[in-house]
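To whoever is covering the structure queue this week,

Two jobs came back overnight. Logging them here so there's a record in the thread.

Job A:
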Amino acid sequence: MIKLRQEKIRINKEMIIVSPEMIIVSPEMIKISQEMIEISQEMIMVSQKMIKISQEMIEISLEMIMVSQKMIKISQEMIEISQEMIMVSQKMIKINQEMIKISQEMIKISQEMIVISEDMIEISQEMIIVSQEMFKINQEMIKINQEMIKINQEMIKISQEMIMVNQ
């Protein structure tokens, strides 16, 4: 019975020694969690900027497609005129065919830019989702750390009470 009491006192003393260390570590963990939240928020901002840039790129690409389509239309009209003007037509047809090729290349490039822009939007949206998940996890970590502090404080109280009872 005496050995049991001595063992309880020894355990309580060790808990009193360990509990303050846990209280010291818990605010550090909260600080780290808050920093992670800040990083997550910055990632969300960066992702939103990337989405905005991607949307602007899509707008530019669409404008380029419209310009290219107008160029093709103009080129086709010029080919019709050149057929009527047989003397000049051979040279003009060559020039216009080159313009059509350039315009078609521009359409291809514009379409590729749209695909790239859409991919960037998807990546940005996924980054926002990841950032939001990290933010939630960090909030949960803060809650857990706060609970640990409460538990540690309770353990200290219990240990002190047990020491007083044992004395």
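Job B:
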Amino acid sequence: VEDTVLLEWDEESKEEKKIKILTNPTPGLDVRTKGSDLTKDTLIMRAGTKLSPADVGILASVGITRVSVVQKPKVAVLSTGNEVMDPFS
């Protein structure tokens, strides 16, 4: 917002349509290096964590681009005779 001039805006929605930036960008400004927001030996996440989009972002922020994953096991129960009994008998 600093170093800008509002040139055009939408009366109805009050949204900015056009601005003029008064300064040149500084290369590298506000760019963090990977892992710069964590200390050494910080546990990022535990094994077995179900990854959310936020978790993927955290991993990317420390330079991790590949992780080992396991598929949830699939279980089936097959009844072939009288081994299944009524629990109320």
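Note for Job B: Strands lie at 4-9, 16-21.

Please reply-all if you pick these up so we don't duplicate work.
Q.
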